[in-house]
Specification:
It is a single chain. It contains five helices and five strands; from the N terminus they run H-E-E-H-H-H-E-E-H-E. The chain is of the alpha+beta class. A five-stranded antiparallel beta sheet has the order 2-1-4-3-5.
Length: 141
């Protein structure tokens, strides 16, 4: 199974809907494939223009390390030098906070990742998870 454009659009639609339902600030959502390549992105009205880079950095970090944004944030707290080195290796496209969520299939294989930005990192992860689950996939936040 691969991450399709149809699945990516479903994830984005439901992540944004979760944000609106919960009264979150305007969100931006990106879906990347297992290689970190963008499949789809949307930025809600009122979201700042720099949100693409942040959303991509959250998703990219998950793909490059194969772990969830919460695990990356914990690693940043405990091993700041490691995370700083990873950010250098990945050309600055690595944002080590929650809101990056791995997308897995039912067998545990990584299909891609979702990066959400615009509200608190915890809320960003909630929106991403809602989108992933609505697409019938498994979220690892």
């Amino acid at each position: 199974m691969t991450m399709t454009l149809r699945k990516a659009r479903t994830i984005i639609k439901h992540a944004l809907a979760k944000g609106r339902e919960a009264g979150m600030k305007p969100l931006s959502v990106i879906v990347v494939d297992a290689g970190g390549h963008p499949i789809a992105f949307e930025r809600e009205d009122g979201a700042s223009p720099g949100r693409y880079a942040i959303a991509h950095g959250k998703a990219n970090g998950c793909i490059m390390l194969g772990i969830a944004g919460s695990a990356i944030q914990a690693r940043a707290d405990s091993q700041a030098y490691f995370v700083e080195a990873m950010n250098g290796l990945y050309g600055g496209a690595f944002v080590p906070v929650k809101g990056g969520v791995l997308v897995r299939d039912g067998k545990g294989g990584i299909l891609g990742a979702v990066g959400v930005t615009g509200d608190t990192s915890d809320n960003d992860a909630i929106a991403a998870t809602a989108g992933i689950e609505a697409a019938g996939l498994v979220a690892e936040a």
